Amino acid sequence: MIPMDWIWGLVGGLMIGGAAGLYLLVNGRIMGASGILGGLVDGTGRDSMVERLAFLFGVLAVPPLLVPLYRVVDTHITANPLIIVAAGLLVGIGTRLANGCTSGHGVCGISRLAPRGLAATGFYLLGGAVTVYLFRHVLGVI
Amino acid sequence: MARLPGMPEPREVVAFLAGGLFGSGLLVSGMIDTTKVQGWLDFFGDWDPTLAFVLGGAVLPMFFVWRIAEKRGISLFGDPIPARTAPRLDGPLIWGSVLFGAGWGLAGLCPGPALASFALGGWGGALFFLAMVSGMVVAPAIRAVLFRPATTD
To answer: For residue A27, what are the domain limits?
Structure first.
């Protein structure tokens, strides 16, 4: 028996891939969350500002509309503000240095067999696995 | 095509739809649940393979989309399809990804789910979002100090 979580994961994944496909085939853009947001934050995406805002508005506003139809909607985020701030800073700095995150380098890069996307995915999986090992199994704080 | 003043451009409507589908996929897949993401990264503990199904489901349609897009060369709206970047490994790519991964593991959130769960994640989600945006603000300065010359994708 396949766990329901895996099936929901596959369905959600197909939706994510469909969104990336739509954005690429119609608008000619790579759907990378950190790049779309980061270009607004540091001003490098000024010439496509409204398009970026429209994308981000969709990401922010549509999921809450699904909540009444949906099962669990708890992010289970840690209550430790130090960990939250440190993690947010690392994600913000890291994704902008690397020019991509799980959507741009991950979904869009892997599917294009792009060497930089594949390499980035290897390195952020490594960083994540080592961090969870250290902070969960050695230090016991997450 | 004539448009009424104040009406969104077609490409902005598509961007909104793509963003809405992306965010909905993140919700449905369970990727806004930080414990599932940390479970995926917990290779030495109680490993949760769900994220492999999410990534597989997302990569599958995109594999064919890239073939179509690169063959056509332009988007439906006439934009050039982004060119392939040189297959070069450099410091910002490697160290940026390692730092990103560390933050991803610490809180179980990456940029997409942080946005999609913004309205659902309480004060913790909002604090993460603020910290992430702050990191994006200082990233160009950090890049200039640590890595030169600057590289771009």
So the answer is: 4-138
pLDDT tens digits, residue range B67-115?
Answer: 999 999 999 999 999 999 888 999 999 999 999 999 999 999 999 999 9
Tell me the shortest Cα–Cα distance from B46 to chain A, in angstroms: 11
Q: Residue B107: how many CA atoms within 13 Å on its side-chain side?
A: 34
- Whether the complex's predicted ipTM is more than 0.90 is answered with yes
Report d(CA B104, CA B107) in Å as an integer. 6
Residues in A touching B136 (Cβ below 8 Å): 34, 37-38, 41-42, 92-93, 95-96
Domain spans, chain B: 10-146
> In Å, what is the CA distance from A52 to each residue of A38, A57, B63, B71?
10, 9, 24, 26
> How many distinct structural domains can be found in chain A?
1
B28 vs A70: CB contact, 8 Å cut-off?
Answer: yes
